[in-house]
Write a structure and sequence with these properties.
By secondary structure, the chain is mainly β. It folds into three domains: 13-31 and 326-419, no CATH class; 40-169, no CATH class; 175-312, no CATH class. Helices cover 13% and strands 35% of the residues. Strands 1, 2, 3, 5, 7, 11, 14, 16, 17, 19, 20, 22 and 24 form a 13-stranded parallel β-sheet that branches. A hairpin with a 6-residue loop joins strand 12 (180-181) and strand 13. The relative contact order is 0.16. The chain binds 2-acetamido-2-deoxy-beta-D-glucopyranose (NAG) (4 copies). Residues 43, 60-61, 78-79, 83-84, 313-315 line the site of one 2-acetamido-2-deoxy-beta-D-glucopyranose. One 2-acetamido-2-deoxy-beta-D-glucopyranose is lined by residues 22-25, 353-355. Residues 1-22 form the signal peptide. Keywords: Signal.
Length: 421
């Protein structure tokens, strides 16, 4: 086992230099998904920044940043055991667990919980862990699945919560390049005609949520691909109450997994959503309290979600993506043997070539279960805002790390530029 070093780095924000003047701008063909939050989004089947309650199935990975409210559900039921590190969490819960017992099933992978509130974890057997009053069946226990406290979960959740807000509102500001034909007065199909795409192959719509998903004249919602260069469809829906109670989604794009992975319903204004119809494609509604009584076929990132129905694949696939190569990894429990090498550099200041100043707060190498990670914690200051992000770049091999640090920082800096509202 390698020695473990922990060197804390404390940098007061007051040591930051004066804000740099001027606005940073993004080029017109910049990737709108080039952010850490988009990277997180692409890793999960379900993200709730608040509470989650399901009495049914979730096919892929789940992160609950608030509390889990249901005692019984099946998680990770469609993940290939051979393709998933059993020690990695497939279900992450930052907040409280429900009282009153219950035995959720986690088909593949581990369960992690946050450090606040404090949880009681008891191993009951190779495939059974009790956490507080819930008895989790970890069916990957023989492959190494476990339950552990992840002290990084609160900060990860904070990053996800603010990041998804920013992502949703920045996507909402993109000028639409396509129109829909929406029935009014006579029942007929609603057509989302994809005629134009931007330089990243993205078709953008900007529509009223109620006129599309809760319009009594809509017989079906048809997505028509008239442009072969279409790589992704962004459907921005405005309105504070977005309900889905009229029309089925049709057309070969959306009825196929591939198209569903490349369609995003973005609802930044929605504070409530009631989904009675089967939504297909990914849903981003970071301010919405969502109730679903029908399945959602696509990645779902919302404020809170209560459902008795299934939450299905596929994960979202963006047409262009962040510099971050790979999923940020969670730290594993102290009860699991691990080898961690940590080294910290003194904070440095680098004035970038753009209107950013950033500070490396921490740079450390981590070796967890044989995989090598470079973790850079940095703060960047852009005019009057301080952005903090954490970039983790997981690598399988030992050093030398590629890409070199300066390249990673450059990418990180570009990403921060894109995070601006
Ligand atoms: C989307 O449509 C709404 C309502 O017409 C409008 O206020 C908003 O500016 C539009 N957004 C964009 C990016 O064009
Ligand atoms: C959408 O329709 C409006 C009204 O007909 C038109 O002004 C606009 O140019 C159209 N936008 C696109 C991207 O086709
Ligand atoms: C489920 O998640 C795993 C791990 O994140 C991913 O590799 C896989 O593609 C997902 N499964 C499906 C069917 O999309
Ligand atoms: C900083 O922002 C200003 C105003 O947008 C711009 O003119 C200038 O080129 C930027 N500087 C750099 C180095 O990017």
């Amino acid at each position: 086992m390698l020695p473990v070093y922990y060197i804390s780095t404390i940098v007061l924000l007051t040591t930051l230099t004066d804000p740099v003047s001027g606005d940073a701008t993004t080029s017109s063909n910049a990737c709108p998904f080039n952010s850490v939050s988009a990277t997180y989004f692409s890793q999960y089947n379900v993200i709730t920044t608040g509470d989650f309650s399901s009495t049914s199935d979730v096919e892929n990975q789940t992160i609950v940043c608030g509390s889990l409210k249901s005692n019984q559900a099946n998680y990770c039921i469609h993940i290939d055991q051979n393709n998933f590190n059993a020690k990695s969490p497939c279900l992450e819960i930052n907040g409280a667990l429900p009282s009153g017992g219950g035995s959720p099933n986690v088909q593949v992978g581990s369960v992690s919980v946050g450090s606040n509130p404090v949880h009681t974890l008891t191993k009951k057997g190779t495939t059974q862990y009790q956490i507080d009053q819930l008895q989790f069946n970890l069916n990957g226990g023989n492959q190494g699945a476990t339950a552990f406290v992840d002290s990084n979960l609160p900060s990860k959740c904070a990053a996800i919560t603010s990041g998804l807000q920013t992502l949703s509102s920045s996507l909402f500001q993109i000028t639409p390049n396509n129109n829909a034909t929406i029935p009014s007065g006579q029942p007929s199909p609603l057509n989302l005609n994809v005629n134009n795409v931007d330089s990243n192959g993205i078709a953008i719509f900007n529509l009223s949520g109620s006129s599309v998903l809760a319009n009594k004249y809509v017989q079906q919602i048809q997505i028509n691909i008239n442009n072969a260069n279409c790589k992704f469809i962004l459907i921005n829906l405005y309105g504070t109450a977005v309900n889905f109670n009229q029309g089925n989604l049709v057309g070969s794009w959306i009825t196929n997994l591939n198209g569903r992975a490349k369609t995003l319903w973005n609802c930044p204004q929605a504070t409530t959503m009631n989904l009675q119809q089967n939504l297909q494609g990914a849903l981003l509604a970071p301010n919405a309290v969502v109730q679903a009584s029908s399945n959602i076929d696509g990645a779902t990132a919302v404020k809170s979600l209560t459902t008795q129905s299934e939450l299905h694949n596929p994960p979202i696939q963006f047409p262009c993506l962040a510099a971050v190569e790979k999923a940020p990894v969670s730290t594993l429990s102290s009860t699991t043997p691990k080898a961690t090498t940590t080294s910290t550099v003194a904070p440095t200041t680098t004035t970038s070539t753009t209107n950013f100043t950033y500070f490396i707060l921490q740079k450390r190498m981590q070796n967890v279960h044989g995989s090598q990670s470079l973790i850079i914690v940095l703060y960047a200051r852009e005019r009057y805002r301080i952005l903090s992000e954490r970039l983790q770049c997981q690598r399988r091999r030992r050093p030398p790390l590629k890409p070199p640090l300066h390249q990673l920082l450059l990418q990180q800096q570009q990403r921060l530029l894109l995070l601006q509202v």
